[in-house]
Amino acid sequence: MGQFKQKTASSEADRFEALSRISIALMSERDEASLLHLIAQTAVDLTGATYAAFTLRPTNEQGEITAPSEGSLFYLAAIVGVTEEENEYFRHLRLGGEGLLGPIFRHGVAVRIGNIPRLMHESTTEYGVRRNEARAAAFEFAHGQVPADGLRTIGMPHGHPTMCSFLGVPLLNRDQVVLGGLLLGHPEPEQFTENDERLLVGMAAQAAVALENTRLYQATYMQAQEVNAVFQEIADGVTLVDQNSCIVRENARARHMRERLLKDGHTQALEEMLYAPAARALAGQPANTLSVQVPDDHQEKREYVVRATPLHFPEFTRRSAPLGNLSQKQRTKLFPQAVVVWHDVTEAQRLMLEQRIHAETEAQRSLLQTILDELPSSVYLVRGKDARLVLANQAAKTVWGAEWPRDKPMQEFLDENQISIFMDDGRPLPFAQLATLRAVQKRETIYQHQEVIHYADGTTLPVLVNAIALAEGKLTINHHASPADRSGVSEDEIAAIVVHQDVSALKEAERLKDDFIGIAAHELRTPLAILRGAAQMLVVQTLRGNGSTLEAWQMESLQDIDQSTMRLVELTEDLLDVTRLHAGRLELHLEPSDMVALTRRVLKRIQASTQHHQLQMTSLTDYLIANADQRRIEQVLANIINNAIKYSPAGGLIEIEITQDAAQQVGYIAIKDHGIGIPLQQQAHIFGRFVRADNARNISGTGLGLYLCRELIERHEGRIWFESRENQGSTFHIALPLLVDLDR
């Protein structure tokens, strides 16, 4: 008996020693799979079991249980004592709290069975009934109502090794929740004792703590890895320093910045960004934010906000066990005393500046829009060669009879709304000749351009258009708006501001005036003809000797009457031509005409009327054939040449040159004088009605001649323009399209 007790005591001592060793091993193991296998193998070694299995419930990354302790939800985490084939089989097996496992998995109590076959009885009942009976028995066993022999089994899984003896204990966490189970088996009966059960319960308790520690360590390690990754990848530069301002740790951004500043010799900037803020933080001064500018790799200035903060660690952390026998200096190095953070605010500052500029621009734009909306005239701003709208006031919508969407080209807007633009004489105005298009395509500034808007419903609106081309850089519109609202003017685009003035009332007044002038001119024709005829008859009859002889002064008076009535007749004809033009009743009788011969006829006739001026014609071609109304072209040439004579009071040479552009099929006539010229400030308006230059006030004239010249030439699809310098003379140019010479 004493010998048995001695053997038992020796066995218990061996178990205790093994348990102590396994406890140390469990506390040091950090790999969960290795830990579980170690527990299973130790259980086999200490109990003499043939095989051991470690089962666990599924958990998430934080170690939280994700499935209930029912059903087939326990998986095999480690197994010892089986073949490779059996191991592979059990790895895919899910165990539930049924049969003999019910008390372990469902109720958290140990189960020790000496002979499993004795619990297996032949049963004809279905599986569901047997499962419920097994669950009821497990409940009664867990509450001490029946012994282990009262448990019911529902059978072994197919392929399970032969097992007679069974010992299973639950793995419980600190809240007594079942985490899993440690299961032992032996093919022989009655192999596990009560001591084995107590030993296994103790091992399970230690295993639960070790498993929780391992999972906590793994979670902490993962968090540390994440924190380190964030620390290294963060856009800010972060530096940790000790109590002597020595760098303990720094991330890649801070290290790159520090090394670059040292390499480039910017030690002062490094002092301002790192060491000075760290010293203030270590001295206990309140944390403050500094702004420092340093050059980047491309030597461009970047602005950084630097903040240094002291770090405070609990005393128990400083003296914790992991530091072991480290010296105080080594301990201090492990616990940094301050953190310095460099935050690049260059882009943020730039964005804030852009946002402020955007807000200011929008405010100015809103104010401008408000001002424009209060104006009675249509005002809009366009950009680009296709005249895309930037902004417009409310009156513009009234003028166009439709809303012009922002950034839509003018041509598309007009086409969509079936709007056409005509000249004031009723002829269609080519799109490229619109004042708006001339401003954005040719940088022209156009004043008082007459256009007539024809709407889709057939109504019209006469307008005066002023288009001012804006110089590059004079206009900046918001570039940071959304794409749908972006309306900035780029550097390579021309912008123009266009004003439309509704002149319907003026046109009506002008029509009434033209009607009156037409009526007056028409009524003057008859009495003037009678007056001139009478004066000419008196002169002729006197020269023939009929009637009384007239004195010299009487003959001179009759000649003055004749010349004055002739000028009045010419004036009435001009006035009638003006009214015909405005009424659209001026008809041209076009026919192929030789411009060279026509010009010679006009020169011959005018040369006979002046002795102080020499008319000299030069032509580089024998003839130029144009489709023209000869009488009207003669009227134009006579007007310009007579002006050259009239405004050259000192006499002299008047040159007429005829040329052609064969490629473009255009003929040119130039009339050059050396007279008084036209003042620069009045040149833009010289083709207007009743317009005369200030330096010509003492010379007779009506101011209608050049107006009629322009209208007549444009009705021939030609152009007329001039070059002039005051007191140096003028050169007027006429361009007419030529007929194609099929004989050449």
From TrEMBL:
Known EC number: 2.7.13.3
Taxonomy, superkingdom: Bacteria
Residues annotated as domain Histidine kinase: 519-740
Pfam families: GAF_2, HATPase_c, HisKA
Enzyme class of the recorded protein, top EC level: transferase
Signal sequence region: none
InterPro entries registered for this protein in UniProt: GAF, GAF-like_dom_sf, HATPase_C_sf, HATPase_dom, His_kinase_dom, HisK_dim/P_dom, HisK_dim/P_sf, PAS-like_dom_sf
Keywords: Kinase, Phosphoprotein, Transferase, Two-component regulatory system
Gene Ontology terms, MF aspect: phosphorelay sensor kinase activity
CDD domains xrefs: HATPase, HisKA
Catalytic activity: ATP + protein L-histidine = ADP + protein N-phospho-L-histidine
Protein's recorded name: histidine kinase
Organism of this sequence: Dictyobacter arantiisoli
